[in-house]
Amino acid sequence: MFSRRKRSLLITTIALASVAFFVRPGEAQKNKSAQEPAAAGHATLASTTPIVSQAVGFAETRTVREMMAQADQFDLEVKEKAEEINELNTKFSRTERPNAPKQVDGMLQSSFSKDGRFQINIPAPILTFEGLGVNGSAPPDTVGAVGPNDYMEGVNGGGIRIYDKAGNPRGPAFKLSTLFAPLGGVAANTDRGDALILYDRMANRWLITQFAYDSSTAPPYHQPMAVSKTSDPTGEYWVYDFITPGNEFPDYGKIGSWPDGYYFTDRQ
User: Would the pTM of this model clear 0.90, i.e. be above it?
Assistant: First the structure.
């Protein structure tokens, strides 16, 4: 048990770093980049070498089963917010016009084949079921992952819900900030959205993350991450608090698993 935990901590510490194909220079790269002046109006980009950093916080959680047992107020809280808390998102004010003329999208394809040569041969879904509702969150940024026995879904506002493969909820939705509560600080006190969920088939674990910050225009920007101790998504997790490098808002995050660790990228 100790070796498995030690391996998980080592891999996560090494690989759960904010990486981007193009990132602004980090602290260790400032001296080098300072010798390469940028053209007027353009920032100098660093090399494509991944940036590796250690977590600034680490903790172990109680079981998600306990959290779900206390999360029955989640839906009401989300309906009050009904919007991702991200100041960088564009907000639209829509007014319904019942008598407005019908609009036609000239690029919309109305048929698969005009001459009948091609036929659609896509099988119907084996199963469909109602997912986690956010009552008009704009945008919901729905994500999810499938494991051996479960499906986990996430939406903006920190909402996470776990279903079995028949579509039955294994409990009510809960906030990611509740999962990250042992870390304290901004990771435990905010649900800014853009959750990411990954099931690692190689290690038989779940990985969940979302960004956390006090201001979308001022670093530091945190990226708390949770790695399940077992293949059961309702069990205990190891949680880590990382700070993404650079001063740019770490939008459009992505995660992936590889034999030597987990990798995280964001837009810098």
Answer: no
End-to-end CA distance of the chain: 38
Q: What is each CA distance from 154 to 53, 163, 218, 227, 263, in whole angstroms?
A: 26, 11, 26, 15, 19
C-alpha distances in Å from residue 98, one per residue of 93, 94, 95, 103, 136: 16, 13, 10, 13, 20
Q: Over the stretch 202-212, which tens digit does the pLDDT of each residue have?
A: 999 999 999 99
pLDDT digits (tens, 9 = 90+) for 7-56: 444 344 434 443 332 223 333 333 333 334 434 443 444 556 777 889 99
Query: Are 172 and 71 spatial neighbours (Cβ–Cβ below 8 Å)?
Result: yes
Q: Sign (positive/negative) of CA torsion 184, 186, 187, 189?
A: positive
Token pair belonging to 52: 């590796």
Kindly tell me the sign of the dihedral angle through the C-alpha atoms of 47, 52, 57, 63.
Answer: positive
Report the helix count and the strand count for the chain, using DSSP H and E. Answer: 6, 12
The Cα–Cα gap between 186 and 212 comes to 6
H-helix or E-strand spanning residue 253? strand 251-258
Q: Is residue 80 within 8 Å of 136, Cβ to Cβ? A: no
Question: Using CA atoms, how far apart are residues 190 and 85, in angstroms rounded to an integer?
Answer: 9
> Residue 10: what are its φ and ψ, rounded to 5°?
-65, -50
